[in-house]
Fold:
Amino acid sequence: MKAFVVKGPKEYSVELIDIPKPLNNEVLVKLETSGVCHTDLHIANNDWPRQPKYPMVPGHEGIGIVTKIGPNCKKIKVGDRVGIGYMFSACGQCEYCVGGKEILCPSRVVTSLTKPGTFAQYTIGNEDYVLPIPNNLDILGGAPILCGGVTSYKALKQANLKVGDYVAIIGIGGLGHFAIAYAKAMGLNIIAIDINNKKLESAKNEGAHYTFNANYFSLVEQIKSITNGGVHAVINTSVATNSAILGMSILRRAGKQVLVGVPPKDKNNKIEFPLSILATISGEQQVLGSVVGTRQDTKEALALGEKGIISKVGQVISLEQIGEVFEKLSKGELIGRAVIDFRINK
Ligand SMILES: [Zn+2]
Ligand SMILES: [Zn+2]
Structure:
């Protein structure tokens, strides 16, 4: 099969490799579509503290048809359409798994880090963790919901907002676009912030009520005046560390900043921002982390996707074009999500 293989940081090519074999409780999936997530680029380039094992096949937003089932597989059958997300599997027994927060399982297995990813004609999934795909979901626009979409949807859920509340979305990349789509569906007032005016324009077209360039000098004052004291929540998808400082400065009292975008590690191998202890205490503000989503969150995010709330795909590509997309992603030039369509033979 054809696969996009990464052999080291910035070292990748499309190659012919063996089709993986489904083991116990695993299924073989022939991919139809797969989104390209910023995380793929970070993992491939070893930008994060956790080192990948090369050679590897990235990709964790795949939709395809099960063509073979492994031993003891009882819940999934050949012909089923399934989604392969960021979480390949979890232990099923720990307090997080039992409590419906399996994404926090300390023994979770991540697609592409320890199991082959979805940038290939075939991949494998675990029968308990592949995601059912709703019948009427557009599988091209819907594939990125499996990571990008659910990540933004779950971050908004964490912020626990009410209809009419103000939410600032910092960083209008793939996650930011999803955050706008879901925030719109939730009836929120949306402020989009980025440093790229083209991205801000697309944010406006997709439903942001206000847009601001992060370099604009009176940004904080203007946002405080529009929102009468600051936003109820910030969904921070930016990969710039400073954006988290900006996020704190535009929160209203009791506001929450939800961190979802992971910047690359600094020269000390750390990813951090300075936080004012006094301002956090006196404003009773909260900083929350949000990592992807559970199977339940994904089900909800896909259900909203089936209702057509997700915007169009930024760019439909072939497996051979992932390298170009990685280039654009690293320069911050990709507008919307790139999705691989395996059904077209380019
Ligand atoms: Zn567990
Ligand atoms: Zn992802």
Notes: Residues 148-159 form the longest helix (12 residues). The radius of gyration is 20 Å. DSSP finds eleven helices and 17 strands in the chain.
